[in-house]
Design brief:
7 helices, globular
């Protein structure tokens, strides 16, 4: 792992113990609801990939539902928490510690989820990562992203959305977890990348407040030929210095996963 990736993974290792709990408090539980709502599009036995899975509360539910779950994260600390949860529940999933750009099972997954992951990047890199994630989905397969919603509704609702999301972003930015960026309109981004947007579900703070979170489900058109992998960028947005491809690191409590840039 090169220096900037190591720094990023260390920053997320440090955040692993509080990340999910604080997101529950911050979102009044709606972040988890938004992520788990995606499971209604899937059937047991299907292959689903979680990119930037973190501590994996969504991946855990997917495994519980009988999906074949693969999880990627650059932070070993995050994956260790997920592994412990899987162990406690008697469930299994494939956990791979690497940079998501290095996972290259093209056209392989029935679904790829990028929940609260694409917001780790500034727009150009976010678009590259989205393109890469789409390249991993089978034609006809699904792409999911749950994240902070772009401001919408009345002026006070939009103002609240911005104020509430930006103080959280400021905190994460200060911890060097995310770069400063606007709240992305993922449905529009997905359409630009040739995806068919099937569903955009909004989630309100405490179920009744302003719209703060969104879950977008899209389908990869069948007629699109196997997409070329997005060229792997050489710079991570968050970390200050440049980065190149990393090797996979052995996941916690599991057999070593495929090393190097491709996981066949
Ligand atoms: C904001 S957290 C979201 C975690 C989880 N998806 C959730 O919804 O709780 C972003 C996660 O992406 C991981 N991450 C950031 N950049 C990554 C990269 N280039 N490759 C793989 N994982 C990355 C971080 O380690 C972190 O666990």
């Amino acid at each position: 792992m090169v220096t900037s990736e190591r720094k990023l993974s260390r920053n997320y290792d440090r955040a692993a113990w509080f990340y999910e709990t604080s997101s529950h408090i911050y979102s009044t539980g709606q972040i988890k609801v938004a992520k788990v709502s995606q499971l209604r599009f899937l059937q047991p036995g299907q292959r689903v990939l979680y990119l930037g899975v973190g501590a994996g509360e969504d991946a855990l539910e997917a495994a519980r539902m009988g999906l074949q779950v693969t999880c990627i994260d650059i932070s070993q600390g995050m994956l260790q928490r997920l592994q412990r949860k899987l162990d406690r529940a008697g469930l299994t999933a494939e956990l791979i510690c690497c940079n998501a750009f290095d996972h290259c099972r093209y056209n392989h997954y029935d679904a790829v989820a990028t929940n609260f992951f694409l917001n780790c990047f500034k727009r150009p890199m976010m678009q590259e990562m989205m393109k890469h994630a789409i390249s991993l989905v089978k034609p006809g397969g699904r792409f999911f992203v749950a994240d902070v919603s772009p401001p919408q509704g009345s002026l006070p609702a939009r103002a609240f959305n911005l104020a509430y999301s930006k103080w959280a972003m400021a905190l994460f930015w200060a911890m060097r977890l995310v770069p400063w960026h606007e709240n992305y309109d993922y449905a529009a981004e997905l359409r630009q990348q040739g995806m068919t947007v099937d569903d955009v579900s909004d989630f309100r703070l405490a179920k009744v407040g302003p719209i703060m979170f969104q879950s977008v489900a899209a389908t990869k058109p069948v007629e699109v030929p196997a997409t070329q992998a997005a060229r792997r960028p050489h710079v991570l947005d968050v970390a200050p210095s440049s980065a190149a491809v990393t090797a996979a690191v052995d996941g916690p409590g599991q057999a070593p996963t495929a090393g190097g840039p491709t996981h066949a």
